[in-house]
Structure of SRR1-like domain-containing protein:
Amino acid sequence: MATALTILMPGLDEFQVVTRRRRPGRRFFGNRLLGQFRHRIEPDINIEQVLRQVLDAVIAIRNSPYRQILYNGLAESLSMLDVDVIPEIVCYGLGNFSENRSAKYQLAALLTMKSRYRSRVHIYDPIFFPKEIEVLKTLGLIIIETNEEAKRKAGDNITLFYMPHCYKGLVANCIYANWGEKINNCILMTNSFTEMSDDIIGDDADLRDAVELIRRINPYTSEIALEEKFDAAREAFHCTSIHIFPNELINNVPDGFWTPLAAAPYHYQGIEHGREHNRD
């Protein structure tokens, strides 16, 4: 028989945790979300415990200066885009938040934004454990069922792409998918474009193509750096910025700038390219 736990948090959505019976022996990845890692053993995850840890992280952010820094950065971005809502948030590359402290706080920031703007949130990472997916569903997030390689195109309304500490190739793929004047419907919250543009390009073709594309769009990007005033897990938000593409900048691109690109800069090769940093 299923049991239920309701957790109320002032100013946030109400979350109901439902503990379901699980069929014995299902300890391996075996669905189409995580097919590439079907032989990876799932650790023993207590769903209620992880959920409480995530909600504790939400409270920690709410009680820290970082919440207002985040709110101010988003408000400034929306003002420059002349909108006041974020209907859709798409999150890629969050990582195993049941194990990784930084990922847990990054998820907490995502939930904080969801609550603030009442956004629909879509999320994907090929390394999510099945029980982590259950936690995300309980929190009201929509699981993306295929590996899009971050090549989702924004619609006619604002979409915030939340890609904390994501590999440069995935960030560049998102830019590639939205290449054109309608890129101003995108907000990218990820590692600083300015810092990525300064990276030395090595022999990795994916890295080279990705950095070149980020360098190409960077002059037409407005970047709002988010200070790291969050003592509980400063590394979780290290080098994070909000990036927008306001009309006053993209209207000044040279002729031929939006010529369709031949191919995406990056194709998914494995687990090691999911996140740029793993400091925990």
Remarks:
- The domain at 27-273 is CATH 3.40.50 (Rossmann fold).
- The mean pLDDT is 85.
